[in-house]
Predict the structure.
Amino acid sequence: MTTDLNIKPQYVGYLIVIGFTLCAAFADTLVLGLARELPWAQVHVFSHFVLLFICLMPVFLGKDFSVFRTNFPWLMTLRALASMLMLWAYFTAFKSVTLFEFFTIISLLPLMSSLLSFIFLRERLSKWGVFSVFLGSGAMVWGFLIAGQEFSSGTVFCLLGVFFSSVALMVSRYIQRREDATYALVFYPTLGIVILPYAISNEPLAELSNVQWIELVGYSVLLVITRLLMPLASKFLEVSKMTVVMNVQLVWVFALEIVYFGAVPTGTQVAVSGTITLSAIVMVLMGSAASGESEVLLESGGPTST
C-alpha cells in the first residue's frame, strides 16, 4: 500500500525557515563576541570566502557557469549591495547592544518587509496575517519600552539593518518568482561581500586567538547553511510570512543566552518571546495570503527607485 504525501509548499517553506532561524541564532551568538574584538571586514570577508568556495563547487564538479546566470543583473546588484550594507549595519550594532536587544529590534523585520513587499510586489496578507505581523512587532516595541532600553546608536544601526534586510528579501522573492536562481542569489552577494568591505574599511587586520579561529570557522559554516536556506525559502513563502516565522529566532536566543552566556531571561523577555512565537503560529495556521499578486517592479529587471 502506498500513501501520497500531499504537503503544501508553504509548509515546506515554514520548515526551511525554522531550520534557518536555528542556524542563524547560533551564528549571531558567535558573531556577537567576534564583533567586539575583530574588524567587521575581516570577519565577513573570511566567512564569505568560505561561502564563495561552496558556491563554486558545482563548477569544480564539472558544471558550467550557467547555474549563475540571471535575467535580472541589476536586481542581483541591488541585492548584493543591500546584503553587504545589512551585514555592516548589524555588525556595527553588535558592538553596543546585547543579543536580546538586537533580536527585539529586528523583530520589526516582518512589519518593514510586509510594507515593502505590498508596495513593490503587491503581496497581500489576510486579516489574520496582518494581525500576526502587528502582534509580533508590537511585542517587540512593548518589550523594548518596558525593559527601559535607550534609543542609542546601536538601535539606529539595527533599524538600518532591518531596512536593508527587507530590501534583500524582497528582491530575492521577486527573482525567485520568475526564475530558479538559488545559486545566483547566494553567489553574487557573496562575491560582493568578499571584494568590497576592504575597499570601504580602513580597519587593520587583527591577530586571532585559537578560540577566535574556532568561533570564526563555526560562524562560517553556519553562514553557509543560512545563506543557502534563505533563497530556497523565498521560493515557497511570501516575504511577510517568512519574516514573521523568522522571529522565533528569539526563542533560540534565550536558550543560547542561558547555555552560552549563563544569563537568565527576565519575565519581560519570556513574555515577548512567547508573544512573538504566538504571532508565528497565527501566521502559519491562519495567515494565508490573499490572491491576486501582481508585479510592480520593472519587468526589465532594473532597480526600483527608492
About this structure: The chain has 14 helices and no strands. The two ends are 56 Å apart (CA to CA). The chain has a mean pLDDT of 78. The longest helix spans residues 9-35.
